[in-house]
């Protein structure tokens, strides 16, 4: 997916770009509205992440003119203002969703996914590996002629594996990705979700393999 | 916490007393004046008859064949008899010596002339009124003075006066009663604008600080001006603190967002378990503070809007659906299903949709936070006789029984929530929103499954 991040705070922008890149997305970063316009004029984006308070103007005006010129790239507003009325106002201006700073990356991911799913209108975004079709937007995994609906955590876990086949992920890293920090999630929980995925993958070439002492990886049996 | 008010006197009572005293004085004065006038008038008519009688007797005096004769005409007394049962006395004197009549009738004080003079005296133990006049005749060339005195008791006059006094007293009492009534009415109507002002101010919401706009009488201008000035100062200071909260939240949140994001990325690069634990705790602390900032801001917004409640028609089912949509991604993250059960019938209430959404968001947020992963949060709405009730139920540990009563207070959190980030304001917000709409928030635990169950009720439109 190709994202445009419009955010003037350097550190936050860098961190967000780093994180989204880790997940395999391509991210362009604009520090102000002018740059953002330039990017949009030349590139098709799947999603725009838009800050409200920018050095050369109000992100809401940008949003308004964006919608007025009939561009329908989905927009998620990142705002530090959390007043409900502000949020409602943003949605009225045509934003697809909003996120209040500071945000949980998992939540950002989830909201991006939800928006993309809503906007894709059934267009598929399928990844294939070892006889398995994975559609992150539709939340489905197809093994042979079996289509399985994945629950959110299964989906996110499988996404991590399929984006980097054969790479070993430690349980603790997987915990970080899957659970919010406010729950003292144990690494045992990961085993539960790996177990579920293994069940889904029964009969396929692709398998989640335990690498003793290190973690798990997705590879061909 | 209102301090006791020192009361001294009552304007209404004072006004009524003053008006009553005034009316009593006026009534008495009227009584006295009219009585006096009536007495004068009655006395005057008695005097006129007495004078006529005296004149008639004098006129009948004549000199015949060189001698003086007085032939008292009948009507000279009969005209006096007109007045009730009064007794009549008379005395005729010639050159100062008694001639005929009642010899011991008191002598007039002053030497009288041809016009009658009057005086009041007592005779035979009774009050009498006397008229005296003198006539000069010539008997054989000698001047001869004849003096006639006619007197009459004053029963009739007194009776007449008593009757008049009675009537006048009746009038006086009537006058007093009428003016007392008017006085009380006047006092009431003088007080009414004060009472109206007091009512309009006390009927307001806790922080409805608009200036008084209802018309008030000129005398109250200074009071209302002072009141308005006071309220506008209060409002300014309230607005300032609200702005401060908003600005502070903004200033705090942006750097927090940076720190949180970088901490999350750092966590990926760190391998040592103790360092990882440290970074996790860091993220948790950031979440605590950013949440607190957000909730404080929301709470300030809720307090503000509750006091300036602008009501519009809100369709409950639609509100619930939209709000639930909004939390779907967060619920999804923890594999929590949101189960929505809404009735077919439309449920319309009068409310501020932004506030109501905020209340519901807080309940949903709580339910998702405290639910175990892979569970359900049940959201339902139903209609009772007068209310629409929205219920959010989770499958978590439920509210601790001992905390139930105090969870809606600010910054109070359940005793079983240590593992979950929270500010202790969510239920306070929901509670205040419900109360502002005339509804309420009630907390229970689900009978069979034990999850927490929070319901918001709003009176139907």
Strand order in space, largest sheet of chain A:
2-1-3-6-7
CATH topology of the largest domain in chain B: Heat Shock Protein 90
The pLDDT mean of chain A sits at 86
| Chain-averaged pLDDT of chain B | 85
* General shape of chain A: elongated
Rounded Rg of chain A: 19 Å
DSSP helical segment count of chain B: 8
What fraction, in percent, of the residue positions of chain A are helical?
Answer: 40-55%
Supply the CATH class of the largest domain in chain B: Alpha Beta
- Unreliable stretches of chain B (pLDDT < 50, length at least 5) are none
Count of structural domains of chain A: 2
The CATH architecture of the largest domain in chain A comes to 3-Layer(aba) Sandwich
Give the topology string of chain B: H per helix, E per strand: HEEHEEEEEHHHEHEEHEEHEE
Distance from first to last alpha carbon of chain A: 29 Å
Strand residues, percent of chain A: 25-35%
As residue ranges, the low-confidence spans of chain A are none
What is the tally of beta strands of chain A? Answer: 13
Report Rg of chain B.
51 Å
Q: Tell me the number of helical segments of chain A per DSSP (H or I, 4 or more residues long).
A: 8
Describe the structure.
The complex is a heterodimer of chains A (221) and B (461). Chain A is of the alpha/beta class and 221 residues long. Chain A folds into two domains: 2-120, 3-Layer(aba) Sandwich (Rossmann fold); 126-220, Orthogonal Bundle (Arc Repressor Mutant, subunit A). Chain A has helices at 10-22, 33-42, 59-68, 84-92, 105-120, 152-163, 171-178, 187-200; strands spanning 2-6, 26-30, 47-51, 53-54, 57-58, 75-79, 97-100, 126-129, 132-135, 140-143, 146-149, 206-211, 215-220. Chain A has a five-stranded parallel beta sheet with strand order 2-1-3-6-7, with helices on both faces. In chain A, helix 6 crosses helix 8 and helix 7 (171-178) crosses helix 8 (187-200). The radius of gyration of chain A is 19 Å and the shape is elongated. Chain B has 461 residues and is α+β, with helices and mostly antiparallel strands. Chain B has three domains: 14-162; 207-308, Helix Hairpins (Orthogonal Bundle); 309-461, Heat Shock Protein 90 (2-Layer Sandwich). Helix content of chain B is 51%, strand content 21%. Chain B has eight helices and 14 strands. Chain B has helices at 11-60, 75-81, 155-202, 221-269, 273-307, 316-333, 353-370, 426-436; strands at residues 61-64, 67-70, 88-94, 97-101, 117-123, 126-139, 142-153, 312-315, 337-341, 348-351, 376-383, 387-393, 440-445, 452-459. Chain B has a five-stranded antiparallel beta sheet with strand order 4-3-7-6-5. Chain B has a five-stranded mixed beta sheet with strand order 9-11-12-14-13. A two-stranded antiparallel ribbon of chain B has the order 1-2. In chain B, strand 11 (376-383) and strand 12 (387-393) form a beta hairpin. In chain B, helix 1 packs antiparallel against helix 2 (75-81) and helix 6 (316-333) packs parallel to helix 7 (353-370). The model of chain B has no long low-confidence stretch (mean pLDDT 85). The interface between A and B is large, with 41 and 47 residues.
């Amino acid at each position: 997916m190709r994202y445009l991040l419009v955010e003037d705070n350097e550190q936050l922008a860098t961190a967000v770009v780093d994180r989204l890149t880790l997940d395999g997305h391509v991210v362009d970063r604009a520090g102000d509205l002018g740059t953002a316009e330039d990017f949009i004029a030349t590139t098709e984006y799947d999603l725009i992440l838009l800050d409200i308070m920018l050095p050369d103007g109000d992100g809401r005006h940008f949003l308004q003119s964006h919608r007025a010129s009939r561009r329908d790239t989905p927009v998620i507003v990142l705002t530090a203002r959390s007043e409900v009325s502000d949020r409602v106002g943003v949605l009225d201006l045509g934003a697809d969703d909003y996120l209040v700073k500071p945000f949980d990356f998992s939540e950002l991911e989830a909201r991006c996914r939800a928006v993309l799913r809503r906007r894709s209108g059934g267009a598929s975004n399928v990844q294939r590996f070892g006889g398995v079709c994975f559609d992150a937007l539709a939340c489905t995994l197809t093994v042979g002629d079996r289509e399985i609906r994945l629950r959110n955590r299964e989906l996110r876990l499988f996404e991590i594996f399929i984006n980097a086949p054969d790479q070993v992920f430690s349980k603790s890293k997987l915990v970080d990705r899957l659970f919010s920090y406010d729950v003292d999630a144990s690494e045992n929980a990961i085993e539960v979700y790996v177990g579920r995925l293994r069940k889904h993958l029964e009969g396929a070439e692709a398998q989640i393999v335990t690498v003793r002492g290190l973690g798990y990886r997705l590879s061909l049996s | 916490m209102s301090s006791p008010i020192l009361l001294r006197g009552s304007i209404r009572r004072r006004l009524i007393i003053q008006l009553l005293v005034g009316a009593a004085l006026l009534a008495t004065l009227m009584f006295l004046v009219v009585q006096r006038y009536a007495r004068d008038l009655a006395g005057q008519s008695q005097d006129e008859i007495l004078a006529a009688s005296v004149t008639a007797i004098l006129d009948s005096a004549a000199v015949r064949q060189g001698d003086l004769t007085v032939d008292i005409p009948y009507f000279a007394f009969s005209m006096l008899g007109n007045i009730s049962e009064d007794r009549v006395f008379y005395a005729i004197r010639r050159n100062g010596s008694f001639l005929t009549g009642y010899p011991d009738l008191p002598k007039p004080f002053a030497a009288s002339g041809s016009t009658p003079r009057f005086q009041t005296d007592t005779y035979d133990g009774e009050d009498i009124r006397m008229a005296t006049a003198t006539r000069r005749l010539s008997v054989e060339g000698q001047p001869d003075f004849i003096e006639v005195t006619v007197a009459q008791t004053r029963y009739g006059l007194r009776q007449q006066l008593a009757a008049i006094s009675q009537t006048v007293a009746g009038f006086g009492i009537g006058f007093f009663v009428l003016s007392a009534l008017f006085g009380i009415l006047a006092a009431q109507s003088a007080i009414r604008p004060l009472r109206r002002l007091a009512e309009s101010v006390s009927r307001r919401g806790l922080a409805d600080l608009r200036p008084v706009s209802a018309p008030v009488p000129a005398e109250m201008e200074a009071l209302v001006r002072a009141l308005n000035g006071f309220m506008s100062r209060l409002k300014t200071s309230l607005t300032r603190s609200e702005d401060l909260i908003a600005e502070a939240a903004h200033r705090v949140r942006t750097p927090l967002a940076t720190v949180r994001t970088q901490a999350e990325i750092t966590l990926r690069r760190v391998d040592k378990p103790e360092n990882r634990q440290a970074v996790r705790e860091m993220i948790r602390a950031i979440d605590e503070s950013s949440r607190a900032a957000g909730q404080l801001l929301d709470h300030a917004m809720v307090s503000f809007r509750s006091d300036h409640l602008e009501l519009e028609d809100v369709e409950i089912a639609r509100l619930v659906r939209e709000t639930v949509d909004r939390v779907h991604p967060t619920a999804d993250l923890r594999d929590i299903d949101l189960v929505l059960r809404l009735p077919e019938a439309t449920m319309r209430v009068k409310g501020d949709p932004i506030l109501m959404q905020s209340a519901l968001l807080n309940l949903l947020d709580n339910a998702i936070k405290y639910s175990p992963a892979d569970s359900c949060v049940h959201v339902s709405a139903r209609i009772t006789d007068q209310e629409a009730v929205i219920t959010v139920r989770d499958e978590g540990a439920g509210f601790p029984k001992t905390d139930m009563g105090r969870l809606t207070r600010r910054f109070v959190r359940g005793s079983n929530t240590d593992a979950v980030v929270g500010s202790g304001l969510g239920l306070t917000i929901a509670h205040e929103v419900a109360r502002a709409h005339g509804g309420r928030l009630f907390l229970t635990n689900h009978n069979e499954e034990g999850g927490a169950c929070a319901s918001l009720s709003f009176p139907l439109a």
